Amino acid sequence: MSHVLVTGGAGYIGSHACKMLAARGHIPVTVDNLSTGWAEAVKYGPLIRADLADRAALDAAFARYRPVAVVHFAAFSLVGEAMADPGKYWRNNVVGSLGLIEAALAADCRSIVFSSTCATYGEHDGVTLDEGSPQQPLNSYGSSKRAVEEMLRDFGASQGLNAVIFRYFNVAGADPGGEIGEWHQPETHLIPLILQAIDGQRPELVIHGDDYATPDGTCIRDYVHVMDLVEAHVLGLDWLAAGRGSRVFNLGTGTGFSVREVIDAAEAVTGRKVPYRTGPRRGGDATRLVSGSRRAAEELGWAPRRSTLEQMIGDAWNWHRNGGYQAGS
């Protein structure tokens, strides 16, 4: 069994990746400072509580476990915060990634799967985005992720680092087995916010703008089930292990849903009404973000089989009703 270093493995997506890595015969080694992650989510391998800025801790982790690859999730990712405090995003997301890359190369670990984002594309209304679409990020979150992509390309050209970069869209759902799920403090993602409003944990959902150029006036996003997403990351590791070199892939379904459509689906799945009101737009929000994932389908053999609104909301609802990581709430 090979070790894989997973940064941000105590977070939402990272913990699901660790579960799938363990199921596929790897030992996931989580490196997480627990600033937004949960120790309770680290169930499938060891936890190293450390920040990516701590080079000594990274060097010790590489020396102890000799990972064959890195899966890099750790990052700040709140659009509103990124607009208000860009320096925080450049320091954490870019400088932290630089330290990780240099530590990996020093340990002769030359394979990395990087969690990037559709936010690198920015605003492209009416266009299904593919890997060749122009990258014009609207905020420092997207800009910092694009910078890490460029960093990986530079280290690939100069030092033989191989990277699979995944630009993915809105991630939703939870582990169907109910062991782990989506739990943020504060919560900012649409589906858990809806479920909290349904369950009385917040007074209402706030829709951020209803005057966008969409059929119902609310933003449109492409949602992908978290288990589909992390399956792609395992396929990315297989790609690198086969010596196929660096590659960028979009991950999405190619179908977008508006905020109001997600609300309607949640009401159908749960049998409850969603209390909501409309507020002003948020700065940095694009009108429509929908993925073209043909490359991932054709080259990786990836398919988002679980990514229906009904399944994503249903799995999230089951997790939500189980209470989440209450010890940290």
List descriptors.
seven-stranded parallel beta sheet; Rossmann fold; UDP-galactose 4-epimerase, domain 1; 329 residues; four-stranded mixed beta sheet; alpha/beta; single chain
Descriptive account of the structure:
It is a single chain. With 329 residues, the chain is an alpha/beta fold. The chain folds into 2 domains: 2-172 and 223-251, Rossmann fold; 190-221 and 254-328, Alpha-Beta Complex (UDP-galactose 4-epimerase, domain 1), CATH 3.90.25.10. The chain has 10 helices and 13 strands. The chain has helices at 12-23, 55-65, 79-84, 86-106, 140-159, 190-198, 226-241, 259-270, 294-300, 309-321, and strands at 2-7, 26-32, 47-49, 69-72, 111-117, 162-168, 170-172, 205-208, 220-225, 247-251, 256-258, 276-279, 288-289. It has a 7-stranded parallel sheet, sandwiched between helices. Strand 5 (111-117), helix 5 (140-159) and strand 6 form a beta-alpha-beta unit. Helix 6 crosses helix 8 (259-270). It is globular, with a radius of gyration of 19 Å. The model has no long low-confidence stretch (mean pLDDT 93).
